[in-house]
Design brief:
single chain; about 325 residues; alpha+beta; Phosphorylase Kinase, domain 1; Aminoglycoside 3'-phosphotransferase, Chain: A, domain 2; 2 domains; six-stranded mixed β-sheet; three-stranded antiparallel β-sheet; 11 helices; about 40% helix; globular
Length: about 325
């Protein structure tokens, strides 16, 4: 088999599979006759290991995703692959843009990790292809992103919190627990989490403002350019696929990563709002947005630590201090 893993240190968060393990997973998923002829690890995965696998007798490749070992997962990121799987019926509104799940296994009988096999989507990652178009065409892309986000956010859920659970009866509880879990994870890896704890305390004092959000809406969790695919030869940017929904939530759409990125700059992305609609700019809405930004920054700090970006971890403290000053 043509096997191309990514070389990693033994202490790295992500750990590659062996050629034998990939073969055993494919046999589990497709039967004993399933024979991988090549497996290329894609270095784009920030959390799970991702492989493009070609199988004998199958015209299209498949995508194999493997979650980190249980003991490597943070409390605030636990069982994210299972969360994505639970999200699929709720994401039916954008199903034509998503890969289909061919097999999933949480039993740990083949390897000691969760894994999922999906169809391979055609298309070029947006960060690689959007630059092939003049910037005057970029608003077309962001209007499509706004329409996709709007369709997701219009879906109502049964509870607040991660789609796969645990579910909470109020939005404030979901937000506060999330902040507390991120703080615990940061402390667990030896980082100062005092500012994230402070954000949780501020959120607790402002429960009533958070609980003005009474309808749980579906949040994509991580949808932006890095998780979008474009048609390679379209005359203007055309989104043909969207990927990675392991961080889905039910809650306030304003708390979604997509909204955070759409508001980050005043550039071509402002076209996002033409299809999405207006944000809540009331004082209460702006206060909630600062709480959500504190949560984003805490999660970003944890991810930067996981990726070994020490300078970026240090930068996060100043950014969160500024947000907290606005919440005071």
């Amino acid at each position: 088999m043509g096997f191309q893993p990514v070389e990693r240190a033994s202490e790295a968060f992500q750990q590659s599979l062996t050629e034998k393990e990939i073969g055993e997973i494919c046999q589990r998923a497709f039967g004993g006759a399933a024979t991988p002829v090549s497996a290329v690890e894609l270095g784009t995965g920030m959390y799970s290991n991702v492989y493009r696998v070609d199988l004998a007798g199958r015209e299209q490749p498949v995508v194999l995703r493997i979650a980190p070992e249980e003991e490597r997962q943070f409390r605030s990121e636990r069982h994210m692959m299972r969360n994505e799987f639970a999200s699929l019926p709720w994401l039916a509104v954008i199903a034509p843009l998503m890969p289909q799940v061919l097999a999933a296994d949480w039993s740990h009988e083949v390897i000691g990790r969760d894994w999922m096999i999906q169809t391979h989507l055609d298309g070029v990652p947006a960060p690689e292809h959007l630059g092939a178009y003049p910037r005057t065409a970029w608003p077309v892309f962001f209007r499509q992103m706004g329409a996709i986000a709007r369709s997701v956010h219009d879906v109502r859920g049964p509870h607040f919190g991660p789609v796969g659970g645990p579910g909470y009866g109020s939005w404030s509880e979901a937000v506060i627990v999330s902040l507390e879990e991120i703080a615990a994870d940061l402390e667990g890896v030896g980082l100062d989490a005092g500012d994230v704890c402070k954000a949780a305390e501020v959120a607790a004092r402002g429960r009533a403002v958070l609980d003005e959000v009474t309808v749980p809406r579906l949040l994509a969790g991580d949808l932006w350019t890095v998780n979008a695919l474009l048609a390679p030869k379209a005359p203007e940017p055309l989104i043909t696929g969207v990927l990675d929904f392991d961080r889905t939530w039910f809650g306030d759409p304003a708390a979604d990563w997509t909204i955070r990125m759409a508001t980050a700059k005043e550039d071509e992305r402002t076209a996002f709002w033409q299809s999405y609609g207006a944000l809540d700019r009331s004082p209460a809405g702006m206060w909630r947005a600062r709480v959500y930004e504190a949560r984003h920054l805490g999660a970003i700090r944890l991810e930067r630590h996981r990726l070994g970006k020490a300078d970026a971890v240090r930068e996060s403290y100043g950014a969160l201090a500024e947000v907290l000053s606005g919440l005071a």
